[in-house]
Write a structure and sequence with these properties.
By secondary structure, the chain is mainly β. It folds into three domains: 122 residues, Nuclear Transport Factor 2, Chain: A, CATH 3.10.450; 289 residues, TolB, C-terminal domain (Neuraminidase, 6 Propeller); 37 residues, no CATH class. The strands form nine sheets. Strands 1-2-3-4 form a four-stranded antiparallel beta sheet. Strand 24 and strand 25 form a beta hairpin. The chain is globular. The N terminus is likely disordered.
Length: 507
Amino acid sequence: MKRSSRNTQYAIRYMLYVLLLAVMVMFGVSSAPALAQENAPQTVDSLDTNLARAAAKSFLTTLTRPELAGTMNFYLTDDVRNSDTIVAGLQNPLVTDFEITAASWATDQTFQVQAVLQPDDRQVNVYVGKYNGRWQVEGIDLLLAPAVNNTPANTAQTTVAPSVSAVAGNGSGKLVFQTQSGGGIYVINADGTGLKYVTNGIDPQLSPDGSKIAFTRWEPEYALYTINLDGSGEQVLTKGWRQMKSPTWSADGTSIVFSWQNGGRLDEKEERVDLSKAAQNEDGVHVPSNARDVEIENGILKYRIPADANWHLKQVKLADGQLQDLAAGQYSYSPTGNPARPNEVIYTVGGGGIALYDLSGNTSRFVTTDARERAPVFSPDGSRVAVSYWQDGNWEVYTMNADGSSQQRLTSTPITVLAEQTKLVSQVVDGKERLVPVENQKWNNAAPAWSPDGTQIAFVSDRSGKWEIWIMNADGSNQRPMFPNGALNGHSLNYAGVDERMISWGK
């Protein structure tokens, strides 16, 4: 009861805090600048405007005050609070101060506050909406630092990496990578120099000429964007298509194909099978090929099946914004354009392998029918394809010819590593202490990206105990960390196995 009373007092105290800030804004105590629509001096802000602005400012204040970190969630909607990426992106590096530069109504229901965060003059948009009578942060965009005098030479840039030495043997070009799906998007030279933060988003890909990046965001709304490689010129191409992912350029740079979710089962299923009862069934026990976390405990077979969402492909023409639905089927996602043929896109068929789509004829054909092959990417000349392959409970990188022949496994966990992990440990089982074997932890290797000349492949791997960018020859030889010069020190990567594009390597 005492804890409940304290929680009630806590909630009331911070509700009063928000109201107090609103009153301060109304009487001019706040240092926030006037709204754009307040050009007329006689205009008086509505109560909702003041409360919305106060909620946004209160949230920004918690970023700069460590002692208020525990109150941050009070100002966030459930979706933002439960996200592992939105708020984390703001605190890299930690916010020390902020200045509100503009505020206005983005829509009739959403209030937008623009601010500059210190250090590094990072620009952020905070979107606030009304939920159950209370104004809360419903979306956050971390953008580039604002330009000074509108000249590229004076544009503030968030250069993250310290001075590092170039790495030999990595080839040429630039890599664009995301720290995780929806996390920070960075650009770096292949030799490990020139690391720079660009924006936040999902599944970035370089344009064929290397000047732009295509990506999507789900906050504050589903939208497809392009942005210049230097971080300027962010542009929305289309929006409103649910969970837009994997944008990919055509070889001539005139269009972008992306996947989006529409229908199907959105939640994963957990299955439990009593093996003693199943033994009486003549059909036996069938475990689906896409089952994850399969285990048997006390005679019960347990596993989970991923969500069975329907995914579709759509194309947008950059010249006029014209949209076209592609007849690729209802389980089509993770498309990648053929760099050598503007009318070809290869993509994953959920539960069916990978397929090739001909944009000129609006037809598709299967390349493989192995459901374990995911997120295919063409080599620069279009002759080979690399995939992330789900094999025996972990991810591996495979390559094959464009027609699906001559498959080759490039990555694996050495037997010596597995042998070192095979040991017995003491564990209480059924109330008794027993020696049981430790489950072997195989390396994960995924999300391959070809070098511009097709001789090397970059990929992400957790073999060192954390996710890093690795590189190897196109035949799988000479596997090594791509940036041993410390260029990415302090930057954490995470591959979630949802067919995300972690790396794009271009000229």
